[in-house]
Amino acid sequence: MDEKNKRIIVGIIAVICLLIALHFCFRVENGSVWQTDSGYRPVMGTLARVIVVASDKKTAQGGIEAAFEQISKIDELMSYHNPDSELSRVNQNAFKGPVKVSAPTYYVVKKSIEFGKLTDGAFDVTVGPLVDLWHKAADSNRSPTEQQLQQARSKVGCDKLILNDAEQSIRFAVEGMRIDLGGIAKGFAIDKAIESVKDAGCLGALVDIGGDIRCFGTPLKGQEHWLIGLQNPDLESENQNLLELKLTDKAVATSGGYQRFVIIGGKRYSHIINQETGESAEGLSGVTIITDSATDADALATAVSVMGLEKGVQLVENTAETEAIIISPLPNYGIKKTSGAEEFIK
Ligand code: AMP
Ligand code: MG
Predict the structure, then answer these.
(1) How far is the CA of 152 from the centre of ligand 1 (A)?
(2) Which pLDDT tens digit goes with each residue over 180-205?
(3) Hey, what's the torsion of the CAs at 18, 20, 23, 29, to 10 degrees?
(4) Residue 59 needs a FRET pair 20 to 30 A away by CA distance; which of 53, 99, 185, 315 works?
(5) CA distance 74 to 82
(6) Residue range 110-121: mean pLDDT, rounded
């Protein structure tokens, strides 16, 4: 490599380092308050970021670390892929006998069953066997056979979960069942992180885990609300914001096949599964839910992706303090907003 090219590469690396340093050290005195941005950290199989506003630097830093501590704890309990998680212990043993779990895991599983009932079964955390089947299909680049789908479906259904409130235990009625909390755990972790930022004495915060977000209190300097860009799922550019949301004390979650998917025979399949058919849910490109709790927003975004436009809109319209922005794919590309959604659009 000649000297000129070396100088160019060193220059580029220096600029990248400077940008990273600026990003991670985003600490600005905002009048009498501090703003601290954690930058993105890998957790829960994605990237998470916490921005806090506090009366001083120490409180802000304490809020950020408390939030990440919560997020990591929940990941250790509820990760589907970590064989040492509490959830994996349930998945390995709950057919042999009831498995006692921690209060957070029990709460999230109970809440998931409630969402299953609310969504006519569209939200179903027992989809594990189907999730595994589609991952195996992607690895071998061959679609699952009808027989494989049927076999996996026989191990799916919240009616096959046996919960004991007194013991806080979970048992499977059918061998081979597996709970996957991927459609709700991020939201729960966000709610818990917000709680700990509040407990740490911060004045405001935004917690983002993989694009699912909740904010509270004082927003960033010069802004009246927390501003959140909604990415357009159907456009090539990753930075193409479809619209901007202005939120105060709200959560927003987005589900869509464009975020995570598997590829089989060159075709993209969404990671969200219609448990009735065993196939991936392909009807909608993006479903964004705005509501008070991130747990609810996360579960509903996944559920509406399965339910489709008509039933999904109906459900959201009938749910208090909840709005949706739903994007239908080409050739019928369109954006459907529920009746109160406009209030949150900048
Ligand atoms: P989200 O990105 O929140 O929509 O969650 C998608 C994840 O939830 C998937 O990767 C699966 O782990 C899980 N999942 C897939 N289909 C469903 C479903 N019908 N109900 C609940 N969780 C699901
Ligand atoms: Mg979800």
Answers:
(1) 16
(2) 999 999 999 999 999 999 999 999 99
(3) -40
(4) 185
(5) 12
(6) 98
